[in-house]
UniProtKB/TrEMBL annotation, chains A, B:
GO terms for biological process: lactate catabolic process. Its EC number is 1.1.2.4. InterPro entries: FAD-bd_oxidored_4_C (IPR004113), FAD-bd_PCMH (IPR016166), FAD-bd_PCMH-like_sf (IPR036318), FAD-bd_PCMH_sub2 (IPR016169), FAD-linked_Oxase-like_C (IPR016164), Oxid_FAD_bind_N (IPR006094), Vanillyl_alc_oxidase_C-sub2 (IPR016171). Residues 44-221 form the FAD-binding PCMH-type domain. Pfam families: FAD-oxidase_C, FAD_binding_4. Signal peptide: none annotated. GO terms for molecular function: D-lactate dehydrogenase (cytochrome) activity; D-lactate dehydrogenase (NAD+) activity; FAD binding. Belongs to the FAD-binding oxidoreductase/transferase type 4 family. Its cofactor is FAD. Keywords: FAD, Flavoprotein, Oxidoreductase, Transit peptide. This is D-lactate dehydrogenase (cytochrome).
């Protein structure tokens, strides 16, 4: 699956220069290398040749200048929660571990923004924001690093209401491939000043620059929150209910689909007793009256689509338990089969095509031996099929990839994208070409080659050079 | 002000090839040239050497391929409402008039999106959307073309609620500098598939590619709308009221500041009798109950900041009259002085700095002979000083530019941007460097040179090559 033929040793002079700067924060200890050679993707371990732990933007810049001279690849490493092999050093090189850069630098509640270092985790950020009355909504489930979430343009359950990292990053500090430090964006909420470098680096997966500081939007903590679950006799009914809720303009905070197989896994993993049928998880936020209005309107729509057992979770602890269960669905599904791994699909389609898309996919999946629970941020048209495979069985891999390819091609035919939120990494490089066409990929490649002419920044990811 | 030394004649062979393709839609008739040599900026007429009227994306691509071979500049032309000289052919070349491409191609209410050709005007789009129950919110005042609004990353009065063109463009068709046709984005609401080319072209001012098709988000027409105006004894009080309204998270649809001088101009131009003091224009939208809730909350806040005469405009015709007056403020101010032009500043700062920023600016302006009404999309931290000048008086130009520079430098010191929505054009090229720093400008220049190596796409705008 992975070719090691491209691996180059780090030149001894290069290693010596880095060691002189970073001392013990330059490591070639095998356990440390191994720790940086695996993420949440199903790819096997592939360790880097060295790991460097940087403490500051200036240190990152100094490292990049050395690697630029010696043409040694650099792969930024945060929480290691990538699902698409983003952090695997397939051309060898140095894993740049940013986890020492984990400070919330400044909170500006009066401007509803916060500036953080890249290794700040999502949960840590919200813990630090808690007493300010604000929160950061983007929530991909995993306790990812904010830098990694920028790199993959992450989103998750709240995106239907608050948008993705695309909408919620105001400004960045970035170290370029030549080791220059640049700032993109300002603290102003909007700007027409020049090319939108912020949005160019968000979603660039470490291939154009290394993000070392991030300014994010934050939002007032909702006055009132209500969660509800509701079960359906089919996924199609559930999806049609969501489509109408969205089309009616009800500003749901979250609306998640969990199919019967995933519910069963969740019940087992989280010790719950949810009805094992396709289920929607809703969350409504706002003023008490507005929450009531939204919830009532949604409940009426859901009923007309056959929704049953609309059940409320008003108390914070009940709500937390529900969403905790939803967030752990991925890990719950990892226990559907002993020793399994998961190939996670991630297509996103226009909402009007979602029922058709999931329907046809379900039929595909029913014809296969691979267990395949479905989860979805369905309010955005984004859903995941968790293809549960035995990593020791090549036929499982092959079958899962066949299913994945069919799911992607279907989504593209329906006007969608091959990845709603996980990114391209190693896994979707060819799908990216199918999605955008050769001419648009040429434009992306031109940008990559212009900004990283020696191809040292996370080479081999997203785009072939 | 403009140097003509860089103008090159269009080679005869080039003109012949274009004429063979476009026939009478290739024009060198002086009145037509002149029509394409002026926008709403205070720059004097500078006519292109030829004008081409394209009907399709393929025609645009064919034209660009010819111009690429002969290295002839192309300047896209839509509504001609630029305030920063974007459409002036300062290196000579061809104005590419896109006004024949003015079809709304497809409306997808079920996915809340619409696809249009670039010359579709904002008002035309909303007229065509009217019966669908949806609307497109971005509203820069002028009846600009959607293509031009993409090119400058426009925003306007509704941005405080709905975001700018940055947030509201889903996908583009673009002709590159080599005449390739690419599509950026899909119909999916979100995506992590590759570099965000959509956001790179939005705001690129015609310098990276020519936008020939745009897919936009649309939104349900609000169930209930209420507008109100409220006057204050000082601009500072008004701004402080807005800051608190925004910080309290009240989802106002619009909140606009108009100072006493602009109110006087509006009264005269729109035959109104508003109290000549600093005034806020509010709009609230939502369900009837939510509008009431928002309005009441806002009214309470406004009162604590000395707001007086909170006056409602519930009836559509009253509302329309108010907002029509606000939208025509620019034209009203053009009548403050016979034969005048306006240099319009456009800074945007973090909301917490807005009162200080406008305060200090007001003091600057009070020390000058230039009439300078202030308007602002203050909910976003964006305000305009309309510097009213006599175009025949070089000292007026000089004084206005001195004031403009001071306003920009102040905004940058306060963490803001030199342009919130009008773009850079010719006018803010140096400010752009001040804002982003040389290293970030180098990244922008690298992108420009990589994607337009012969510098034929709107050369001389935004960035020096």
């Amino acid at each position: 699956m992975l070719t090691k033929t491209l691996l180059k040793e780090i030149p001894a002079d290069c290693a010596a220069e880095i060691k002189a700067l970073f001392g013990e924060r330059f490591s070639i200890s095998p356990p440390i290398l191994d720790h940086h050679g695996r993420d949440e993707s199903p790819y096997p371990l592939l360790a880097p040749q060295a790991v460097v732990f940087a403490n500051t933007t200036e240190e990152v810049a100094a490292l990049v200048k050395i690697c630029d001279r010696f043409e040694v690849p650099i792969i930024p490493f945060g929480a290691g929660t990538s699902l698409e092999g983003h952090i695997l050093p397939i051309h060898g090189g140095i894993a740049l571990d940013l986890n020492n850069m984990n400070r919330v630098i400044a909170i500006h509640p009066e401007d509803m923004m916060v500036t953080v270092e890249p290794a700040v985790r999502r949960k840590q950020l919200n813990a630090e924001l808690k007493d300010t009355g604000y929160f950061f909504p983007v929530d991909p489930g995993a306790d990812a690093s904010i830098g990694g979430m920028c790199a993959t343009r992450a989103s998750g359950t709240n995106a239907v209401r608050y948008g993705t990292m695309r909408e919620n990053v105001l400004a960045l500090t970035v170290v370029t491939a030549s080791g220059e430090i640049i700032r993109t964006g300002t603290q102003a909420k909007k700007s027409s000043a020049g090319y939108d470098l912020t949005r160019l680096f968000v979603g660039s997966e470490g291939t154009l620059g290394i993000i070392t500081e991030i300014t994010l939007k934050i939002y007032p903590q909702p006055e009132e929150i209500a969660a509800a679950i509701c079960s359906f006799s089919s996924v199609t009914e559930a999806v049609n209910a969501v489509i109408e809720v969205i089309q009616m303009g009800i500003p749901v905070a979250r609306v998640e689909l969990v199919d019967e197989l995933a519910i069963a896994a969740i019940n087992q993993h989280s010790k719950l007793s949810l009805k094992p049928s396709p289920t929607l998880f809703f969350e409504f936020i706002g003023s008490p009256h507005s929450v009531q209005e939204q919830a009532q309107h949604a409940q009426e729509i859901v009923k007309t689509h056959g929704g049953q057992d609309f059940e409320w979770a008003i108390h914070p602890e009940d709500r937390a338990r529900l969403w905790h269960a939803r967030h752990n669905a991925y890990f719950a599904c990892l226990q559907l089969q002993a020793g399994c791994r998961i190939i996670n699909t991630d297509v996103c389609v226009p909402i009007s095509k979602l029922a058709q898309c999931i329907d046809e996919t379900r039929k595909d999946l029913d014809g296969s031996w691979i267990k395949a629970p479905i989860l979805g941020h369905v309010g955005d048209g984004n859903y995941h099929v968790l293809l549960v495979i035995d990593p020791d069985k090549p036929e499982d891999f092959q079958e899962a990839e066949r299913l994945n390819a069919a799911i992607v091609q279907r989504a593209l035919r329906l006007g969608g994208t091959c990845t709603g939120e996980h990114g391209v990494g190693m896994h979707k490089i060819d799908f990216l070409v199918d999605e955008h066409g050769a001419a648009a990929i040429d434009v992306m490649r031109t940008i990559k080659q212009a900004l990283d002419p020696k191809n040292i920044l996370n080479p081999g990811k997203m785009i072939r050079v």
